Amino acid sequence: MSNTINDFLATALEKKTSIVCPACGAPFGIGAQGTFEYMLTERARGHFNDKIQELRRFLEEIEQFLERRNYSYDVKNASRSPYEREEKEHLDSLIDSQFGDTETIISLEIDGRYKGNIGEIEAEKLLKRLDINDLSKHYGLFELLKDGDSDKISQAVNEILLPGTSPSKMGLLMNLIFEQDDILSIRKKLGLSNDSDRKNKKEDGKISDYRAQLDQILKEICPFILEYFDQLHSKFGLNHSEQIDRAKLTLFILLVHKSDKLSNSEGNGNFLGEKMQKGKAYLLPERTMISVDLLCQLVNHRMVLSESGLDLGDEFLSELLSPIQKSESDSDFSGENVKWFQKISHVVHFTCANRPGSGKAPCGWYPKKDKTHSVVLLGSPGTGKTSLLINGVSAMYNCISNLGYIANPEGMLARKELGKINKKAIEGEIPRPNERGARDRIELTIEKIKQPGERTHYIFIDVAGEDVSSITTQESTETASRDLALILRNAEIILYLFDFTTEVSIGSLLRSDDSDNTWARVIVEHEATSAPRNVKTTTDQFNLLTQTIDNLAKEKEGLSKLLQSKFICVIPKADLFASDGEDLFNYQPSKKQEEYERHFLNPFYRYLHSRKLIVNNPFSKSKEKKLENMHSLGGIGIQESPLELCREISNQAKGCLSNIGNIFVEDSQRENLDALSGKVKAGLIDFLECRFSPENTYFLPVSALGGNFIKEEQGKKGNDKKGVSNRRNQKLSEFVFLLPILLKLEDKKGTDNIN
C-alpha cells in the first residue's frame, strides 16, 4: 500500500478512506477526522520566523524611538519664530522671481520646511516607499511621558502597540506562537489561558507573583513601552487589560533573550526555565503545530498571499484573490478542491495523530512525495536492539557515501535525533532498556550521488523487547498489542534479532559445564543484560520467533503475503562465539579439529578478515591482531555489488550457524551436537526460508559493541575533565541498515525498468 502525499490527498475524493502510517501502522486520511494534525513545513516555518524577526525589530525600534523622544530632546510648542519678518520677505522675493504675480502657493513653516512645492510631494512619495508600515505617521502620536497629552498617548498605544502589537497587523502570527505547547505553559502560569485554574487564593497569589516577575523583566528590556502600557491601563482600567496582557507576553517572548535576569531557575526573575536562553532569540519550535482554523486564516492573510517565499505559485495566489463564484456544487469535493490541498501542503505537513504505546506525543510522521518504506526491529528483551540502532545507523551513515549514496535525516527532528545517535556512538554509550510501549525510530532519505533528485525514504522502528516478548507471554496491554499488530501489518522488511546468548536451550548448555571458561564472556554478557531488568533474560527464542511469524502472517492476511516481505535474521553479539585471542587468525587446524571447531563463528570472522570486511581500527589502543581490535567499514573496496556481497555474507553465516553443535567437543556428546545443529538448521534457517523464500531471507551475525578502546585523552579546558572517547569496535552492524536500503533500491530499480 502506498503512502505518498498524493495518496493522502486522494482520500479527500473517497477513492480510498485512508493510507497507512509506516511509522506506527495507524490508518489516517482526510476523510477520517482526528487521524492527522497540521505541522508547518520547514519552508513555512522559516517564512514565519522571518516575520517574527520583523516584528521583533519593529518593537526594538519603537523602544528606541520612545527612549529618544523622552530622553534626548523636548518638543517645544513655539508658536512664532523670532525671524518671522525676514522669512516672509525672503519667501515673497522667491515667489516673485519664480512665479511672477501668480497667487502664492508656497508657504514656509516655522520649523523651516516649505509647504506646497514639488519637494514636499517627492519627499512624501519617498517616505511611503521607505516606510511601508507608515511608522512616521504613528510616531507623531506618541506624546512625552511627562507633560504629554494622555489622550494622545492612549491613542498611540491603541493604534500602534495593541493591534497585533504592530502596525503590520501581525496578530495572527502571535496566535501561532501562542498555540505552541511551550508558550501555552507560560500563558497558564500567567493566568492568560482558559485552562488556568484560578479558583483558590493560593494559586491566584502565584499568578500575581509570575506577573510581577514579568513586569520586572519588561522594565529591564523595554521600560518605555511598558510605561506607555501602564499609562493606558491607569486611564482605562480593565477595558484594555486582556489586550495589554497579550502585548506584554508578546514583548516578553520576543525580547526576553536580551535580559540579564534570564536564568534557568524559577524565582530569579525568569519563570520560563529552560524554554528561553540568554542571547538566543525566540523562534518557532521544530515541531510547530497549527490549528485548522488558524491555518485557514493564514491562507487568507497578507503574510501568505503577498509573499512568494512559500512557493504557492503566482497563478494559485491569483486564484485565491479572485472573487467568489458560487455554484450548486460548492459543497462537493472535486479535483479543484484537491488542488487546494496540494498547495497547502507547501505550508503544512499532514502528520499522523496516532499516539502509540499510550504515549502523550503523537506519532508525527507525514507523507512525502515518494513512498516511505517501513523497516521494523524486533527481538526479545536484552538482544541489544537499541545498541544496534545507535552504532549501526551511525556506522552506516558514515560509510554509505563510499558506496555511491547519500543518507540524509528526514526533517529537523530526524536531524536532531541522528545527531544524538552519532554522539552516543562516539561516546560509546550503552543505552538502558526501552520501557514497554517505547518506539525509537530514525527517518532517512537515501539519494544516489550521481542521480540527484531521485530519493527513497526509509523509517527504522525499534519496538521495545517487552512488547515483542508479550506475544508469547500474553502480558501486553490492549493498546500495546494493537500498536504492535499495526506495525507488523505494515512492515515491509523485518529485522529480527535472534540472540543465542539469551536463548534458553543454548545459554543453559553453555552455563552448565564451562570448566575451562570457554564461554565466560557469554555468561558475563547474559548477567549484564539481565541486571537492568531485574530478571533473568532466558527466552525461548524459537518459540518467540514462531509466534511472531504466525502473528505476522495473520496481520498480512495469509502466509502468501509474507513472500512479499523481506526478512533479515540478525545474530547479535556474534563475536562472543568467536575466539578472542590471536589464534583466531593464526588458525592451524589439527586433524581432530578440522571438521569441528568449538567457537563455531571463527570461520565466519576469518572469512570477513580475508575479504577485508573487518580491518584494524586505527583508534584502537592495542595493535594486536585480535578480533576485539577490529571493526567494519561497510564493504568499502569490494568490487561486486553491495547486494551481492550481502548475499555472500549471508551464505557464509548460514554454514557457520549450522555448526553450532560444535560447542560440544567430547565424542560422547555427538548426539547433542547433531541435535543442536539440527534445531538451528531446521527451526531457524529452514523455517524462515520456507516462510519468506530463500531469496527474501538473509542471515547476518553482527556485534554492535565489539571491543572497547579509549581514544587519546584531550587536553584540559578550564576546570573541565579530560575528554574520553569510548566508541565501540562494531562489526557488520552497518549492514543491518545498509541491507534494507539496498533491497528497496533494487526493488525500485526493477519497478522503474518495468515502467
Describe, in plain words, how this protein is organized in 3D.
It contains 27 helices and 15 strands. The protein is of the alpha/beta class. The protein has a seven-stranded mixed beta sheet, sandwiched between helices. It has a two-stranded antiparallel sheet with strand order 1-2. Helix 9 (201-221) packs across helix 10 (223-236) and helix 9 crosses helix 11. The longest helix is centred in the first third of the chain and has 31 residues, at 42-72.
Q: Helices, strands, pairings?
A:
Blueprint: H1 5-10, E1 19-20, E2 27-28, E3 36-40, H2 42-72, H3 84-99, E4 107-108, E5 114-115, H4 118-130, H5 135-139, H6 150-161, H7 171-179, H8 181-190, H9 201-221, H10 223-236, H11 241-255, H12 292-299, H13 302-305, H14 314-320, H15 335-344, E6 348-352, E7 372-379, H16 385-399, E8 405-409, H17 411-427, E9 439-448, E10 455-463, H18 465-473, H19 478-490, E11 493-497, H20 504-512, H21 520-530, H22 541-555, H23 559-562, E12 566-571, H24 602-610, E13 614-616, E14 630-632, H25 642-657, H26 670-692, E15 697-701, H27 735-754
Parallel strand pairs: 7-10, 7-11, 11-12, 12-15
Antiparallel strand pairs: 1-2, 3-6, 4-5, 8-9, 9-10, 13-14
Helix pairs in contact: 6-10, 9-10, 9-11, 16-17, 16-27, 18-22, 19-22, 24-25
